[in-house]
Amino acid sequence: MEIVRSHRQVAAAAAAAGGGGGGAGALPTYKAAPQLEVRLEEFELFAIDRLRVLKGISDGLSRGKRPEEMEKLVSELWKTHMRHQDPAETLNKDIVSHFVLRLVYCRTEELRKWFLSMETTLFRYRFRLESPESQRMLMTEFQLPYKALPHSEFEAVKDKLSQVARSIGQSANVEHVFFKVPFEEVPDLVASRRVFLSKGYAYVAMSQVVSLVVTQFRCNISKALALTNRKWTATIKEQEKDRLTPIVEALSNAYFGPDYSQPKDAVDISLKDIDQLAKSSFPLCMRHMLDKLRENHHLKHGGRMQFGLFLKGAGLKLEDALAFWRAEFSQKIGSERFDKEYAYTIRHNYGKEGKRTDYTPYSCQKIISATPGVGDHHGCPFRHFGEENLRAALNKMGVGGHALEEIMDKVKNRHYQLACTLTFETTHGVSCDSGINHPNQYFSESQKVLRAKNQTMESQSQSAT
Q1: How many angstroms separate the CA atoms of 162 and 182, rounded?
Q2: Can you list the pairs that 39-43 forms with residues at least 24 positions away whose Cβ atoms lie under 8 Å?
Q3: Lesser CB count within 10 Å: N end or C end of the chain?
């Protein structure tokens, strides 16, 4: 690793700045960026390696991996992309890469949300791999105001704690170290009924303190991202326009996360292509909206935004987008009313009106979290459809038998993106190891598969002649 100052000096500076933690500095808390100098090439390479880790975590979550599987996955990803024989090297790379990506992902709400979620998940599983002594040191570093439950109070609630342990399949022999905390500070433990609640307090075992630490970590990083965004907008972007800004923008394009843009190898689509592409390459959510648009010659605002930005990301140009929506809406409201009430929004989405913002298509995360009302057709079918309607829609795509039941099982367990991934694999006959994270990713991957199949058929045909 090529850092201007010595590795030992950098590690010491990192720890002194609050970046260290976890005993011998194995698990930083990233409270403040250390004062060190890093060569530009290392600046970018470290960030790319960390991005590979975060992308792997995102893929694992989208595939519905269980906690024990995620713990193993995080360990393997970290060992592959971040670990070095010298612990000081690993610590330096860890801290530098985090702050570089914090700069990259601070710039929009969607980017911040994804980065915060992935970094929190990474921290959670790294914390679980730490020794008990290291975990206690991290609790101290976060200045958590909790003290272990006195023996007398522990004995008074011991039977209740045993009942909770048995209810979640653990041994009735409960741990002896518990912390009494306000229940709202451990929402994940309360939601999964893994703690005993009494008079507004949750009794948290030492083995569960990860929830307390992660809550504080998430809060710290969330505030830091907002602050970094203000600094980036006010000064850094302009001051570093010839040095850091190009690297930051390149890194943000390295992963089609929540801000998925049109892929570089995408081809322009025309009006005549839409119906055929829908049958071959649209995800279920977009097929459904196209069907409803053709049926009703209208979509409400949520549907127009979700479907319109998807078509934009798939390669539909502004002129064709206006013609497409006008052709449908004019059948119900007339061309004059369309031009007056709807055309502006379409031009706005393409960055030609208002603030001239070039809007990007919605991610799966944003679509799943939507709350469609009566008469709305946007959202995620895997989450928002009833079972009967979802089965009918999947049958229409040619999904049935064992594959259908497997998809429905994922839906029942709320693994909506995994259900979409299985749908893609079933309809295309290929594996999608990265998982589906975005409707436009679904479209892009589908087009790649179909092009490959067509090329194979052409090669076989030429060989036969």
Answers
A1: 20
A2: 39/2, 39/3, 39/4, 40/243, 40/247, 41/2, 42/1, 42/2, 42/3, 42/96, 43/96, 43/100, 43/244, 43/247
A3: C
